[in-house]
Amino acid sequence: MTILVLMGPPGSGKGTQAQVLAGRLGMPAISTGDIFRANVADRTDLGNRAQDFVDAGEYVPDQLTNQMVRERLAAKDTRHGFVLDGYPRTLDQVEVLDELLANQDRKLDAVVVLDVDPDHLVQRLLHRAELEHRSDDTEDVIRRRLQVYNEQTHPLIKVYDERGLIIPVDGTGEIDEVTARILHLADSLENRGS
Ligand code: ADP
Question: What Pfam families would the database entry show (predicted)?
Fold first, then answer.
């Protein structure tokens, strides 16, 4: 049973690496950004309420986000653990996650923080914009997403560091190189206690 959080600014590759790590550990990767995008595409009630925030690069209000995560974490496939990608992102979300895990008698094992030079982030995101056409990958919205991350999410590193949960990983280089660094970490997590 392993519960991990993948944290890092937009463009740090946390989505890609969360998938790899979850695959390796045989657990689901839960990406709040992916869930919002799927709901927007399907025009669900949640999607309609989230769309303007996502498109503007603003965070979806905590209440909506927390309720969605509450429901997702109640699903059976999370019983052997999971990797969270893009949640929690605010102090309020940290508290809700604490409470959700405490209610299930579970606890967070580690928060992996992907570290990438800020100058590279915008370049990476603009490159991805050409490939994926995400509605929030325009230059203005990218800059806003980086700003929101720095203001609201970066402070969470200190909160989790005080709990001894932070594992910094160098996110620069090729996807495979970063994956190798994280797989090394996954091995040590799998072997822990055995
Ligand atoms: P990125 O980290 O590259 O900006 P994500 O796919 O993780 O991309 O998130 C895309 C958008 O989804 C965010 O800009 C925000 O609008 C919304 N979102 C995702 N996760 C959260 C969250 N935990 N709280 C609030 N909004 C979120």
Answer: ADK
